[in-house]
Amino acid sequence: MHSVRIITLGSHPRDVSLDLLARGIRDILSLDSVIEPIPLDIDAALDPSRKQYHSTELLASLVELESSGEHRVLGITPYDLFIPVLTFVFGQAQLNNRAALFSTFRLHNEFYGLPHSPARLEERCLKEGLHELGHTFGLRHCMELPCVMNSSTYVEDIDLKPADFCLHCREHLRSVC
Ligand SMILES: [Zn+2]
Ligand SMILES: [Zn+2]
Hints:
Blueprint: E1 3-9, H1 18-29, E2 32-40, E3 46-47, E4 52-54, H2 55-65, E5 72-77, E6 81-82, E7 91-93, E8 99-103, H3 118-136, H4 155-160, H5 167-176
Parallel strand pairs: 1-2, 1-5, 4-6, 5-8
Antiparallel strand pairs: 3-4, 7-8
Helix pairs in contact: 1-3
This protein binds zinc ion (2 copies).
One zinc ion binds at residues 131, 135, 141, 151.
């Protein structure tokens, strides 16, 4: 039985309840989470010219933290993430391995000039968390429309998909979780 270590990167994301995230992960994936109180220092992953953090480097530090490989680590950060070939990423994960992370930077309505919505923010966080954790359990992007493993380029894509896995992905998860 796996469990999830939820680790904040840099600082605690504003207006996000990690308890709600943990509850959502338990409801949908039947995995217990442990919320770790001390944020991981991420200064080394900052690209000063882009004012963004290198997602792959952060993933590597999460892997190091979980050397036993017994648990999944889910990092969450308020800062914007990138990989060199893209202007930004919402998150990143290791396929079939232990580390995943996502950023809340572009999950806030305010980022798009829209009114603050705590419910929307929580929902997007849960979807991102489930999606990235899904990759760690070997799931690739899914073409089924009602599935959280759909890939998301824009925040609208995140809003369109449910906070749940399709039957096919769920079947796979049942065999590995
Ligand atoms: Zn993905
Ligand atoms: Zn699916």
